[in-house]
Amino acid sequence: MIKRYFTLFILVHLLSSCSEPKIKQEAVVPNTAKSDSIRIWIEESKNPKSTELQKLSVLNKAYQFALNSPSDSLKAQYFSTLSENLYATADSAFFRKVNNLAISLNQKQKDSISLGNRYWDLALFFNRYSVKDSAYSSYSEAQKIFETINEKQLSGRMYWSMSKIQTDIKDYVGSETTITKAIERLKPLGDNYYLYLSYNVLGITLGGLGEVEKSQAYYNEALYYSKKETNDKVREATIINNIGVVLRNNKQYKKAIQHFKTVLETDSLEINDLDLYAKALSNLASSKLHDNDTLGVNKLLLEAIEIKSRENMTASLASSYLSYAEYKAYANDTLTAIANAKIAVDLSEKSQNNERLLLGWEFLAELEKKEAANYFKKYIKLSDSLQKEERKLQNKFARIRFETDEFIAENVELEGEKEILSKQKQIWIGIAAGFFLLGLSIYIIINQRAKNQKLRFDQQQQANNQEIFNLMLMQKQKVDEVKRLEQKRISEELHDGVLGKMLGARMVLTGLNKRATEEAIQEKSKALVSLQEIEHEIRSISHELSHSAYQKINNFTDSIETLLSSGTKNLNIKTVFNFNEDESWDSLEGTIKINVYRIIQETFQNAIKHANCTVFEITFYRTEDVFNVIMNDNGRGFNINKEKKGIGIRNITSRINKLNGTYHVDSIDGKGTTISLQIPVNKNLINSYDNNPQLKNV
């Protein structure tokens, strides 16, 4: 009975246990001219000591001031100021009136940037009241406006907000499409913060679709962009918590437990993010329970319940009570399990958390057989209602997306028509200047052909240089191997051959020395001394040769830096290599180092030859027992869905499989390529890190 419940319970945790990152205030672009009086009245309305009547009176002053302004231009500015500051006001009717006027006035003024921001205000307002369809529609309107005026960053941020709403209603397919559009716009701009947010949503989305490996890969991408933007340990802990949830939902409980422990070990987490701390407590307890390890589970859950009760975290508190009921059922304390499950159901109803409410009813139906029919009746009714609502919203969102795409297509067509008309007006001017342009074109063509020939020659020269470099590298390796073998052969020859013969001769002379005359003894003694000197000299040479064969030191990071610098000679390519200098990279297994080196070598060569990149970046970092490698270029990229797997990808696949690792390729046509590797580190190596105080906090 309990095992069956566990299976259902784990599905809800996909969203409820994941922690959303702390979002910066979605600040709109400010107006350039605003009234000081408007500002003063807005601030006065936010005074917590004022009554609702006093706040309303102050806001009405601001409203009348804006309404009585002498021009539509000033009215548009003043109402925009009110709108961007009051979307979170308690008086929803007042905000809607102000926002509608602001939208209407900005439409008349054809102020696209301000108009887009007013739809953004409206979306934030609907989000605050959980009116998801209206919020999505408003974000979509803002996105269309920003896209039309080529505000790619704002357009990408709207796409991110839309995908987040789609994830909330389990429209994972639609969310994946939307968030991909966000990344396409944000990545060329280097908006690391929203790229971190976007890849975090993509990780949640792929987890919802059951793509566990892809989900983990996207969470690692989120971690990568988070580290590029800031060194925020709480943010990193949020991502690690989400990865732990994916692992737990994939029944990899031991790995999940380690991730949640890492979250709880984050410095000052209980102070900086109490909500995440409490979630991590519940997640750790749930993972241990599923792993049949009840040690400490009771304490973890009670602490989580105490924190959430104290801080009025109603929705999250319901989850902890349900986990506690699960724990009591596992311990065969059925009465306590039922009591806590009913508390969870009441809290779920208060917080309108329908999914956890369904889970609570199913759990109670398993425990209370007499009331099972009643619980299942409620369950079926609510479940059907939610499914209908989700399908309705998904269909509505699909229509909005279609209308958005159609709108963009129409704009492109309109621009094309305008361009044709413009060309028709200029055609006679073009004919008049035709002969001049013809002559100029001939000159340009001839000149361009000469330049192209030189460019092709330079490119071929670069390719030849790269090939020579590779041959030299291979030859050097072969020479080194021959040297080593030759050293070993000479050492053995000296030690086992020459030295053995001389030793035998010395022993013969020693025997003769005992039977010879005094004069002969003296001569033989001299010979013995000479033989002993030769013996010592040869032994010394033998030891030196034998020792030198093993003295070559291979520095992994130096090898990578040499590869990058050698490959960019005479080329206008910038290379960046990021790694923690305190990390003992040379302690990695030889198999890992040589295969990673070869992957980097091939990826680098492909970026130069085929992608025509100007920047190539490599990043090394470790998380737990995983060695992570991220390679970025700003080349022409490719469509990963259409492009066939070339020999480069097949080689990466082959080498990664040898290492029992995983990889992920993320590329946008015309906007660069990112390849990330995740390689398990040898357990013995991990232990050596743990015992090294310089490496513990890397």
Describe the structure.
With 698 residues, the chain is mostly helical. Among the domains are: 35-129; 465-548; 556-690, Heat Shock Protein 90, CATH 3.30.565.10. Helix content is 73%, strand content 5%. It has 26 helices and 5 strands. A 5-stranded mixed sheet has the order 1-2-3-5-4, sandwiched between helices. A hairpin with a 2-residue loop joins strand 2 and strand 3. Helix 1 (2-16) packs antiparallel against helix 19 (354-367), helix 10 packs parallel to helix 12 and helix 23 runs parallel beside helix 24. The protein is flat and about 130 Å long.
Short description:
The protein is mainly alpha-helical and 698 residues long.
Reported for the largest beta sheet, the result is: 5 strands, mixed
How many β-strand stretches? 5
What oligomeric state do the depicted chains represent? single chain
Number of helices: 26
Query: How much of the polypeptide forms β-strand, as a percent range?
Result: 5-15%
Describe the global form: flat
Structural class: mainly alpha
Q: Can you list the strand order of the major beta sheet?
A: 1-2-3-5-4
DSSP helix fraction: over 70%
CATH architecture title of the domain at 556-690:
2-Layer Sandwich
> What is the fold named in CATH at topology level of the domain at 556-690?
Heat Shock Protein 90
Uncertain segments: 1-15, 24-34, 544-553, 683-698
Distance between the termini: 45 Å
Evaluate the radius of gyration: 36 Å
Give average pLDDT, whole number: 79
Instruction: Determine and state the CATH class of the domain at 556-690.
Output: Alpha Beta
Provide the CATH superfamily of the domain at 556-690: Histidine kinase-like ATPase, C-terminal domain
